[in-house]
Amino acid sequence: MQYTNIFHTLKKELQSSYSQREAETIAFWLLEDVAGLTRSDVLMGRADLLSDELIGRLQQMVRRIAQGEPVQYVLGYTDFCNLRIGVAPGVLIPRPETADMVEMCRQFAPTHIYDLCTGSGCIALALKKMFPKATVEGWDISDKALDIARQNAEDLELDVTFRHVDVLDGSSPPVGMSRRGIGLLISNPPYVCDSERAEMERNVLEHEPAEALFVPDDDPLLFYRAIATWGHYLLSDGGHVMVETNRRYAHDVADLFRSKGYDEAEVLKDCFSNDRMVQCQKISTAVVQ
Ligand code: GLN
């Protein structure tokens, strides 16, 4: 069957939840992903020549997106640091600010890397690509996330070990790799306060995993305390820590690391000019608090 302007039909349905510009971008993205059409193909009307089956698939995807499912879950992937990262409900969709954090690690020359609360594995995998000789581990408490992360490692042919670890459970003994060489401990842990839910987009709240996002209002730094302790186990002197933070607490996180025996704690800004990362260095193996 010959359609008339399927592109506009898709775009119009998307506009029930997205601005005109966003709807257009998503419609182009879907047509490229599902049918391999470029923007100029679409503008020349080639979308109208697609098979009924493909158009049916596109309409189904658009319906899900218009009802609030994140585009990346519907497509099954997102692009992150030039890697195609598979995502599904159960892992956080990688954000641009997290890609900024990975990029800031280029200044280091780590021989071993631990990514705590790894989720889809995006940070660990991007760092393995950046530092192919480093040994890289990603830890998470969620089996669903670990399945997705392992699948991503296989698809991308990157040698990263993913391990089931409850980062908040300090009683489990440190496992694994040698501390010799310069380590990098990196994490994008949950850091959004429960009270910030009201400011968040519906598609995040209703579809992305709460356990990857939220911390209690009365203890917003709990993951950073645990990460600081892990750093004492996992890093030798001179090892680096890099963490993503809630912009409201970036300076408190820097103070926390200072108080736990780390040096050179510095707050870094993301691509949106928000205080978003803290980097610091371990100076003394003597201080374990
Ligand atoms: N940056 C994410 C957001 O704003 C939160 C990531 C996290 O909690 N680690 O949705």
If you had to describe this structure to a student in words, what would you say it looks like?
- With 289 residues, the chain is α/β, with parallel strands linked by helices.
- It has 2 domains: 63 residues; 194 residues, Vaccinia Virus protein VP39 (Rossmann fold), CATH 3.40.50.
- 38% of the residues lie in helices and 18% in strands.
- The strands form 3 sheets. A 7-stranded mixed β-sheet has the order 5-4-3-6-9-11-10, sandwiched between helices. Strands 1-2 form a two-stranded antiparallel ribbon. Strands 7-8 form a two-stranded parallel sheet.
- Helix 1 packs across helix 2, helix 1 runs parallel beside helix 4 and helix 2 runs antiparallel to helix 4.
- The termini are far apart.
- The site of glutamine has 9 residues, from loops.
Q: Segments where pLDDT lies below 50 for 5+ residues?
A: none
- Radius of gyration over alpha carbons? 21 Å
What oligomeric state is this?
A: single chain
Overall structural class, as computed from helix and strand content, comes to alpha/beta
CATH homologous superfamily heading of the largest domain: Vaccinia Virus protein VP39
Number of H- or I-type helical stretches: 11
Instruction: Report, as a whole number of angstroms, the end-to-end distance.
Output: 70 Å
Helix content: 25-40%
Task: Give the ordered list of helices and strands.
Answer: HHHHHEEHEHEHEEEHEHEHEE
Reading off the top of the CATH hierarchy, the class of the largest domain is best stated as Alpha Beta
CATH topology name of the largest domain: Rossmann fold
Overall geometry comes to: elongated
